[in-house]
Hints:
3 copies of one chain form a homotrimer. Chain A has helices at about 15-30, 30-35, 55-70, 90-100, 115-120, 135-150, 170-175, 210-215, 235-240, 245-255, 280-300; strands at about 45-50, 70-75, 105-110, 125-130, 155-160, 185, 205, 220, 260. By secondary structure, chain A is an alpha/beta fold. The mean pLDDT of chain A is about 95. The interface between A and B is medium-sized, with 28 and 29 residues.
Amino acid sequence: MNFIGMNVIGTDQFDRASIDKVLDTAKSFEDVAQQKEKTDLLRGKILASLFYEPSTRTRLSFETAMFRLGGDVLSVTEAMTSSLSKGETLADTAKVIDQYADVIVVRHSDEGSAEEMAVNCECPVINAGDGANQHPTQSLIDMYTMREECGQIDGLTVAMAGDLKYGRTVHSLVHLLKHYKIKFIFVAPASLQIPDKYLKDIEYEQTDNLEEAMAKSDVLYMTRIQRERFLDKNEYKKYKGVYVLTKRMVLNVNEKIKILHPLPRVDEIAKDVDELKNACYFRQVQNGVTVRMALLALVLGKA
Amino acid sequence: MNFIGMNVIGTDQFDRASIDKVLDTAKSFEDVAQQKEKTDLLRGKILASLFYEPSTRTRLSFETAMFRLGGDVLSVTEAMTSSLSKGETLADTAKVIDQYADVIVVRHSDEGSAEEMAVNCECPVINAGDGANQHPTQSLIDMYTMREECGQIDGLTVAMAGDLKYGRTVHSLVHLLKHYKIKFIFVAPASLQIPDKYLKDIEYEQTDNLEEAMAKSDVLYMTRIQRERFLDKNEYKKYKGVYVLTKRMVLNVNEKIKILHPLPRVDEIAKDVDELKNACYFRQVQNGVTVRMALLALVLGKA
Amino acid sequence: MNFIGMNVIGTDQFDRASIDKVLDTAKSFEDVAQQKEKTDLLRGKILASLFYEPSTRTRLSFETAMFRLGGDVLSVTEAMTSSLSKGETLADTAKVIDQYADVIVVRHSDEGSAEEMAVNCECPVINAGDGANQHPTQSLIDMYTMREECGQIDGLTVAMAGDLKYGRTVHSLVHLLKHYKIKFIFVAPASLQIPDKYLKDIEYEQTDNLEEAMAKSDVLYMTRIQRERFLDKNEYKKYKGVYVLTKRMVLNVNEKIKILHPLPRVDEIAKDVDELKNACYFRQVQNGVTVRMALLALVLGKA
């Protein structure tokens, strides 16, 4: 797989070799990401960071990655109310931004929007979330974190808990982890369990008992119940507090389990969990910069 | 004409020599704009990009130009709701920003606002559109595109179609093209024809027949019917679809005509026109960066 | 006092030696601030500029300071409507941004918010205003301006006029000036006079007569009556025009008095005052960049 000029739209496009390539490249950028080294690798290159839908965390992660590599950033957060929407199609917007930027990162509420931009651009487009559809870079970050924290990915038992029905990050991560030898445990109330279509070709269990799952797992991937995906506010309230991880639970059930979370959390991980060495979610944020550095450098042919 | 420290407010201030100077300087930046070369010409210089009115396209064009020249950008898109409006006059805002930036680009809904900023600043101010008044850099880009696509400007027959009554870009462009030997054909329904005041000292025809005009022209300058300039929505709907350029029309009537458009388009140019080599409007976007690089470098004394 | 890694949250943390250190460092950056010299002192460093509450002036001042020192800027102005508020605590936001930035500047409407971020970050946090509470960098800028304009701070008589009850900048400035030999004259209508708690350990007079105070002072520190601090709009209107400084007043009463204002002004300083050499408020804006350069360099250990 040749990354130069490649669009990063969905998890479908990654096989095991290409995932490993991203993770290995990320590893090679660790010293720069942690500022032990500086680089001008992307000096003179411009990232257009287009956030049609607010996601400050993801935006800053990509922009930090670009800055750490010496590049510049065009930042658009006013997209929905701007001239970009003066009746113009997304295809035309893509063709225009293509004249400015060397690489585009796009977040948009519509499924397929990143792909639509990509087919209209010569420069590479990276999907930073297109509605309920895909958010592939998050999954690569999750995997990088697992590898860093556990030594390797093959052989892990991974419990995933929370909103497995609507959780985009869960779906993408399952898709990528299929390329490795993983045992999944899906932890959710029946009505929020993972849709069947994601279960093909994987080894898995399903349960609604978080502690049982934790006892058997190397990694716990917690997720937020996403208010914005529920049309019915009462439905949201019903599920909001269903799983709350506490320090005591971790120490009682499996004190070594690696705890990941794509953030932001609401109350599904109690604050006292932060004190544990195996609470990995803020290191996961740091890994976000590292993995995105790798992706930017790869698609720009500078890795 | 000395460009160092100059404000770029309206088309009135340009004569033929100064237009040529901008276009020639732009030409000299082509390799940098297209990234065949890098430069640090404006390293350490700061552009304040003040968009009181949203115009993401124009904003990104200027910011890209600044980055390609090695400079930094202060970007303000929240101007209308910000501290800049805590009852402060535009004159005071100008005097404050003047302490931060080396050059200011301003977009504002009020006519005369760019001039008002300029008289209160020591640093050069570039008008990126002040209401229905002026947008001089767009016209310079249009002319650069004509020169690049046709070889030279003198001798061209230029058809301008669409909303010639309210279209700011049309008015500014006519004003600048007066300095060259041009034959104009103004194509619009009677009620959207170009106001008489723009017709002084030029050679022109007026018609409502687009194909007739195209047959006789070297350049077709299409414009959008601007919804935001119509108070009456029914009036807008009536004119919206009056001219729609298609690939077939171009091939039938004048297959070599150079097609320009300041963008965004709504539906006045069908998507299949994009396939034609003489569809110039996305190259025009690229030229926008090049010409703005020239202007930034000229007013900062670095061309 | 060691500045490396230090948070700048409130005026309490400054003693005379540390104030002098900031002012002396700022002085050493004058040539860079005024662009007689360039520097790459903060090359590769990232400032996260988080404006939960709009304050474009302050934001641009910090961002300019960072650019003049060669650093990069992550700019967040959409904070209140963004993913940063997807139910996430400010503590978690801090821990996330800490993974991206080398130094954080935060403006927030809640008192104590800057401190809350600081305790959750490893990187230094600078308070750019937390509600009605503190805005320490403004006070350092005011003092730098007094020292530059008057030669030294000790021995000055400083008249402060306007909204002394709610004016955060006045309160912070009094607090810092306590470390020097100053005589204060507080000029306000009785109901907007400075609260007693700020009067401890200082030499002062109180009056509602601006001209009397000016006649006896070296410095006049004018402030805006802040509409946004009044719940009752009629109350605001009553006080809005109570003090209006004119050029004639200055020339009649004390033509040498140095006039400072933290800006924005509404109508408390007439425009004709700008013509006076001793109108210092736009130089004060320039000093804002210089002092913030000093603070950024100091907390990052690069001064």
